[in-house]
Amino acid sequence: MGTYFNPNNESFRCDKRSEIYIDKTGLLEFLNKKICTNAKYISVSHARRFGKSHAAGMIDAYYSLGSDSAELFSDTEIAKKDGFNEHLNKYNVIHLDVSTFWDYYKDNIVEKIVEYVFDEFKNKYEARLDYTKNISAVLMSIYEQTDIPFVIIMDEWDCVIRNAADNQTLVHRYLQFLHSLFKSEESKKFLALAYITGILPIKKIKDESALNNFDEYTMLSSAPITQYYGFTEKDVKDLCEKYDMDFETTKAWYNGYLIDGMHMYNPNSVSRAMIKHKFDSYWRNTSSFETINTFITRNFDDLKDNILDMLSGNKFGVDVGTFQKGVLFISIFSFL
Fold this sequence. Notes:
5-stranded parallel sheet; alpha/beta
């Protein structure tokens, strides 16, 4: 139906058309158990290129009223589960990619997000809403008129936090916007599910009150949904057999993380290696290093010195549970 409001299923359809597609729809069964409960707030803080955005497109296709996805999901894992039809294309969905808005708008990003969403509401509801009110009040009005709750998907929610750390006015305004979507009194009624993705963990943000009701699934601990972000060892073994690639060599190149006892591989790198039939450092070429350069140059808690020391071949211990160093290292090396 729209780009931001009730999107269609084309993103997930493209994923399924791809030469390499691995079914991760089991994530939807997990989310279905959270719908309209006190546990409906889900945050996924994982490294780049580990399938967060692909999952968001799948969630669009499954929940959005703007789609008719029964046939698209008919051969997937979720179609075999109880509750599949109960939730299929039954919700008003808002899907926001914050990084795209940041690229164009930056200092007035909050106002532009609201403007774009309201423009799509106007196409659907015409003059039936009061757009002078804040976004939570408008969403509540839609819910009261339709009795259809919202699923809100926010990709790269932490983009503003990462890129505008020195602009506390903007960060505060952005956090107020998040509060209206996820912690306002209205949201307790209109919200069926909140699914946000990013790199930085919520609990490490200085002003976290807007998001402290979220259950967080990170690179340190994401059970029981670990297997849905990245390729599992079984996934990779199956691909190596199909493409006649050596598994041990693949493992040496792309066995990036051990999460909850599971070896999780970067799907972008593995897929490109299989299709090209060539091992290479594909991940490092997928994004600019500029985003996290600020954190390094500040030399916070000797971070810059430690990285230079590592590049010289030395080693040192890192407590990955602290923001001062551990979480920054996880974020930085997700860009490498």
